[in-house]
Write a structure and sequence with these properties.
About 65% of the residues lie in helices and about 10% in strands. It is mainly alpha-helical and about 230 residues long. It has two domains: about 150 residues, Ribonuclease III domain (Ribonuclease iii, N-terminal Endonuclease Domain, Chain A), CATH 1.10.1520; about 70 residues, 2-Layer Sandwich (Double Stranded RNA Binding Domain). The chain has a three-stranded antiparallel β-sheet with strand order 1-2-3. It is globular. The protein starts with 8 loop residues before the first helix and ends with a helix.
Length: about 230
């Protein structure tokens, strides 16, 4: 089982990059999955995850607000939803090797929790929560920029591919792909508008467009953001 008493080099390097150190006990708590707490007693990282989720939302909103002064509220909300989505956070956490550091119960470890996107994303949020508790908001904002800077730049430069994002989310959370269905066509042949429904086990949404592809993209965007809001 991974030892969380000392940060793995990628995590230690990241914290050092923004001038941060986190007490050993607090970092250990941030990396303690509830399965480990149930088996060994003590507290899990769930409270720190709750805190980190909220602070990360604020920090990313703050960064986007200042980085993209020409974007309106709707565009900023979309960029934030992508930046703090589970697939993005899980990818960042994997790059920091957080999975190797997690304290897991035996069953969770054997069941592959160390590489599960939901577990990795939650651990990253818990680390953010730990940094906020020890260092406050300004340091946490710097950490958020170090963690998500490339993703924020990429999201600002290119419109998010919501079909791909929804596909990743469906596979990560539900083990299935989104299902698309044309439910209506409206208007004359030269001005036809398609209505497409996309569904996952957690919900469904409808999008419209001048082509099936455009309608699928609109539906995927709506469902992706809808599921992101429900998770927050």
């Amino acid at each position: 089982m991974a030892n969380a008493r000392e940060a793995h080099p990628p995590l230690a390097a990241l914290l050092s990059q923004v001038g941060l150190e986190v007490p050993t006990d607090l970092l250990r708590l941030a990396l303690t999955h509830d399965s480990y707490a149930h088996e060994h007693g003590g507290e899990s990282n769930e409270r720190l995850e709750f805190l980190g989720d909220a602070v990360l939302d604020l920090a990313v909103a703050d960064i986007l607000f200042h980085r993209f002064p020409d974007r309106d509220e709707g565009e900023l909300s979309k960029l934030r939803a992508v930046a703090v989505s589970q697939p993005v956070l899980a990818e960042v956490a994997a790059g920091l090797a957080l999975g190797e550091l997690l304290l897991l119960g035996r069953g969770a470890d054997e069941g592959g929790a160390r590489t599960r996107p939901s577990v990795l994303a939650s651990a990253l949020e818990a680390v953010v929560g730990a940094v906020y508790l020890h260092h406050g908001y300004r340091a946490t904002r710097a950490l958020a920029e170090a963690l998500l800077g490339p993703q924020l730049v990429a999201a600002g430069a290119h419109p998010p591919d919501y079909k791909s994002l929804l596909q990743e989310l469906g596979q990560a959370k539900f083990g299935t792909l989104p299902q698309y269905e044309v439910i209506a066509t409206e208007g004359p042949e030269h001005k036809k508008v398609f209505a497409v429904r996309v569904s996952l086990p957690a919900g469904e949404a409808v999008g419209r467009g001048r082509s099936k592809k455009e309608a699928e993209g609109a539906a995927a965007k709506r469902l992706y953001l809808q599921l992101g809001e429900a998770a927050n």
